[in-house]
Amino acid sequence: MVAVDSAIKNSENCCFHCNDPLPRDNPQQFAGVIDGSTRYFCCPACIAVADAINGLGLSQYYRQRDSKPQRPASPDNNASSKTENHTAENFCDIDVLVTQAATGKIPFLKKNAEGFYEAQLFIADIHCASCCWLIEHRLQQLDGVVRADTQLNSHKLTLCWQPSCLPLSRIFLALHEIGYRAAPWQPAEQQTQSSAKQKKLLQRLGVAGLLAMQIHMVAMGSYFGAMPNMQHWMNGVALLLSLPIWFYSADPFFISAWRSLKHLGKTLIHKNRSGWREAFVASMDVPVALAIVAAAINSIIAVLQGTDDVYFDSIAMFVFLLLGARFLEARARSRLAVFAQDPVLPQVCTRIRDNRQQRIPTSDLKKLDEVLVKTGIIPVDGIVISGNAAVEQAVITGEFLPVQKQRDDHVIAGTSLVSGELLVQAQSWGAESHIADLHRRMENALSAKQERKSARHDIYDTVAQFFTPAILLIASGSAVFWYFTAPAKALPAFLAVLVASCPCALTLAIPAALTAATLQLRRQGILVTGRHVLQSLPEISHYVFDKTGTLTQGRMHITNTKTFSSLSAQECLDLACALERYSLHPVASAFNRKASASNTDFFSADAIEQVLHCGVEATHQNKRYRIGKRNWVSPGTPDDEQRDIKILLGCDGAALAEFTLGDPLRSDSKSCIEQLNQQSITCSIVSGDHSSAVDSIAAQTGIPSVYKNCSPAQKVEVINSMRKRHGTVVMIGDGVNDGPVLAHADISIALAEASQTAQLAADVILLNNTLQDLLALRSMAIRTNNIARQNLAWALLYNFSILPLAAAGMLSPVSAAIGMALSSLLVTTNALRLFSAGKNNSSGTH
Amino acid sequence: MQSFYLIIPVALVFCGLAIVAWLWASNSGQYDDLDREARRILEDENTPARRDDTKP
């Protein structure tokens, strides 16, 4: 990822590890000694990670790094036996897979020639080169690790180690301690393709660059007429050097030009009148290929005839510049790191057979096997045979309050079990599971969207569409003219026009602007991966928002506290935090974030007990404390069915305090919607939620149109009907269930905390996780379009003003080369203005 | 000037070698991650001692 700043400044009010703001009420609550000086942190997790890094002698990480990490996901793992067991148990699953490595069925593992095991892992939290450094150095400290190599762009860790000496789970734990989550590497097909494509492009570029230098060296002599008697021989050398450029480096242009010509031919034969316009789409490569071929023929004729009209240097420069532009553009839009993960289903599960529990890879399951699920993500789709549990189904419904699952209920792989235990009869898993199907549907929608996009016209296609016929017309016109006046000049004039039309500046005009804008946005934390985004965004006047996690924070927060006893609100909160400490229930997360370091150990871990569907209870000094449902904590109080969740804390049946929990609006949602409205953009909400919370969110943000209670399929319908009404729409969403609808929108935007599926489907990812970036993105898109138009205008002006000279046979190869270089330089410099423009803007928005 | 007849073929040979070296390096994965390698030179190299405290 591109560095945010040359060095992260640790301002006084920010966490030393993750740079998040310190707790407002007591900024020095979490303190630790790092490298001999006292530092302050935002949460216990950050202290734990920083302590581990410091203790391992790797604290130079903090001096080297140039971008901030995310806050570590899980709470500290060495404070309590309960949580540690939990993480260790999770990691042990990976060892089950290692034992299966010999069968060759585990794609991310293999045994190499030296007898070591090699694993390819995905590390989600890598964000700068120092992370790579930290991971590599930490792993090299471990006995049994032979090699560890990390890639920054793809977040891939290639690990070579001896399982006999060091189990993989220990390596996962070591990474977890310094704040990184590891997972098996499962590249999507798109990813493998796109990285292979980029590699080939880079190779062609390198070859073109090396040869272009040689060709220019040879050509320099002829520019100044230094060696008139050796000129012929020099031209021969240049021809030899040019051959690899023509037949290897320039291949992509010829292939793409040939494809669009073939397409044109097909549509002409079938007399498909609407089709022939589309045939020229992406056909900027046709004039490119024409110019290269014309210049090459001209030069070969010149060498054969012993004249000096050679264009070898121009062709080499042209090909090098174009390939360079394409490579940089592809790199700016690279989303390798986002591709890596499919919706992660557990690869190991507990099978019950003959009354025996066995941990096996899910790929070894048979249909109707009985699978025991105790905690975490459910590995299979199936029917509950026995047990009772609370299951959070946010991935499917977007709703993060758990639902109750009992005998004969369906459970879905990928949903997560919060408390309780289930015995499930496996129906489908892995690639056949419901969630994998959801993912596939999204991918289909994505590829359909890509086809739709390529069939649509933007300004570039429009230019390309008339450019090629115009050039061919002028070239043949001048050839015909010369044929009747001076026949010997007809062919040279024809070729000269084609050479002069060489659309170098024209083909650089838009990619240069797009690349500059994309890089600038990336620096600001806005990852643009769709090619069409910047071009079509300014014209879109309708934005559709998902609710949970997009307009709202997507997490439970304590919005109100009422006390009923002599205890203060803070004391009640501390009690509640201590009780909820080990709970996986989404409600508990609201308390965990409030926990202060001092008093979370009020109850010993063994004293706390989770009561299914009710809450948590613990006994301390013969008093029984409970937190949870009202009727359970303090019998006689009615449960309410409101969206705002009210939780009661009680002691021996008497209520101590009531906490109101809700999912509040993001702090910037309202201002963002208001500013969008000012730019005459209309907004709507599409949500899977059915409760009144949707209406209240709509009222708070001032969004008039609301579609609630939508399934993923209904969301797609809503989007399609909006596309009919408004032309094009932008969709902003975050959940796995938003994947298909994101794939259907013209432009889809996901926030950084969105699920992998949503990020995969999105054209834009807002890494800073703020909606304000929507406005920054829009203003950058508008500026980019202006620059692109200026560039196009200049390039066209240049091309058409030298055409008459070429048609008259008055354009020398040297002046053509210089003109081409200068106009390319001009459009590139103009595009670079986007960097500075973005900077001014970003200081205003942050 | 006659020396050019020798120098230029020599340059061609070197250019050919450079291309072969480039393709080899690229194919062996040395250019797969341009972001990381560009910064490696800035990292301190005093590797901390081996220590393995993951063992129970």
Question: TL;DR?
Answer:
In chain A, 49% of the residues lie in helices and 18% in strands. With 846 residues, chain A is an alpha+beta fold.
Mean pLDDT of chain B: 81
Determine Rg of chain B (CA atoms, Å). Answer: 22 Å
Number of continuous helical runs of chain B: 2
User: Structural class, judged by helices and strands of chain A?
Assistant: alpha+beta
User: What proportion of the residues of chain B is helical, as a percent range?
Assistant: 55-70%
Biggest sheet record of chain B: none
Question: What is the SS-derived class of chain B?
Answer: mainly alpha
Low-confidence stretches of chain B: none
How big a fraction of the residues of chain A is strand?
15-25%
Task: Find the count of extended strands of chain A (DSSP E, 2+ residues).
Answer: 28
Write down how many β-strands of chain B occur, each being a DSSP E stretch of 2 or more residues. 0
Helix content of chain A: 40-55%
Q: Which value, in Å, is the CA radius of gyration of chain A?
A: 32 Å
Give a written overview of the molecule.
The complex is a heterodimer of chains A (846) and B (56). Chain A is α+β, with helices and mostly antiparallel strands and 846 residues long. Helix content of chain A is 49%, strand content 18%. In chain A, strands 8, 9, 10, 11, 12, 13, 14 and 15 form an 8-stranded antiparallel β-sheet that branches. A 7-stranded mixed β-sheet of chain A has the order 16-28-27-26-17-24-25, sandwiched between helices. A 6-stranded antiparallel β-sheet of chain A has the order 18-23-22-21-20-19. Chain A is elongated. Chain B contains 2 helices and no strands. The longest helix of chain B is centred in the N-terminal third of the chain and has 24 residues, at 4-27. At the A-B interface, α4, α5, α6 and α7 of A face α1 and α2 of B.
Lay out the secondary structure.
The complex is a heterodimer of chains A (846) and B (56).
Chain A: E1 30-34, E2 37-41, H1 44-55, H2 60-64, H3 81-99, E3 109-111, E4 117-123, H4 129-140, E5 145-151, E6 156-161, H5 168-177, E7 182-184, H6 189-223, H7 231-249, H8 251-269, H9 273-279, H10 285-305, H11 312-332, H12 336-339, E8 348-353, E9 356-361, E10 370-373, E11 376-377, E12 380-392, H13 394-397, E13 403-405, E14 410-411, E15 416-429, H14 434-454, H15 459-485, H16 490-500, H17 504-523, E16 526-528, H18 533-536, E17 542-545, H19 547-551, E18 557-563, H20 569-580, H21 586-592, E19 608-611, E20 615-620, E21 623-628, H22 630-633, E22 645-651, E23 654-662, H23 669-678, E24 682-686, H24 693-701, E25 705-707, H25 712-726, E26 730-733, H26 739-744, E27 747-751, H27 756-761, E28 764-766, H28 773-807, H29 813-845
Parallel strand pairs in A: 17-24, 17-26, 24-25, 26-27, 27-28
Antiparallel strand pairs in A: 1-2, 3-4, 4-6, 4-7, 5-6, 8-9, 8-10, 10-15, 11-15, 12-13, 12-14, 12-15, 16-28, 18-23, 19-20, 20-21, 21-22, 22-23
Chain B: H1 4-27, H2 34-40
